[in-house]
Design brief:
Layout lengths: L5 E3 L5 H10 L4 E4 L4 E5 L4 H11 L9 E2 L11 E2 L2 H7 L8 E7 L13 E5 L4 H10 L2 E5 L11 H7 L6 E4 L9 E4 L6 E4 L5 H8 L1
Parallel strand pairs: 1-9, 2-9, 4-7, 6-10
Antiparallel strand pairs: 2-3, 3-8, 4-8, 5-6, 6-7, 10-11
Helix pairs in contact: 1-4
Length: about 210
């Protein structure tokens, strides 16, 4: 098993420690409301490189973004159409829903340059929301080797990974069911993955 510092999500300074590691360019294993994720700050290209290597993820597969509120989306340069607005303002947010957004006329912010769209999520997990509030938007992807399922515990995830994150935060077992994914950059929106949230519930909100 990989030897790595492991903190409890409910620890008194876990948010501060994780924030510090991310700010220093480290990769952190974190609990979300669905599966465990690997997170990096978008301000550190080397950290992004390490995340791709740790997961063995193809570079053409862009990383999703997590934020703590819809207000954080404005500086990203995204375009929030009517359908996306309904989802972001629904009772599914924060929650297990990923929304793909295109960009407005001004284009994306500097660290999203070259992309035509970005997948964003607001997780319903107290620890993650506190960390995102402190750190700002983070690049977060599921904590598994590319093509393999995401394990449910920190110990099993560290056994699967071939390289170590700089820090792991243990939030207990996660059920391993991913978020549902709706592409609102497409017209009309397309449900590209049905996870925890059912297709019928998403369609009800989209109207």
């Amino acid at each position: 098993m990989i030897v790595v510092d492991i903190l409890l999500a409910g620890g008194c300074d876990t948010v501060g420690r994780a924030h510090g590691v991310l700010g220093a360019g480290g990769v952190v294993l974190l609990p979300t409301d669905t599966v465990y994720g690997l997170a990096v700050s978008p301000d550190h290209d080397n950290a992004i490189d390490r995340l791709f290597a740790l997961k063995q993820r193809p570079r053409q597969r862009n990383l999703p973004v997590m934020v703590d509120s819809p207000a954080r989306l404005v500086p990203l340069g995204v375009r929030v159409g009517e359908e996306a607005r309904r989802l972001l303002e629904s009772d599914l947010m924060p929650g297990p829903l990923t929304v793909v957004l295109g960009f407005g006329h001004e284009g994306p912010c500097s660290w999203l340059e070259g992309r035509h769209e970005v997948a964003v999520r607001i997780p319903a997990d107290p620890f993650m929301l506190d960390l995102l509030h402190a750190a700002g938007p983070l690049l977060v992807t599921s904590a598994n080797l590319h093509g393999l399922p995401t394990m449910q515990t920190v110990a099993d995830i560290l056994l699967q990974l071939e390289h170590e994150p700089a820090l792991a935060v243990d939030g207990g077992r996660r059920e391993g069911v991913p978020s549902s994914l709706v592409n609102c950059a497409a017209e009309p929106p397309v449900i590209e993955r049905e996870g925890i949230v059912s297709q019928s519930r998403i369609m009800e909100i989209l109207g």
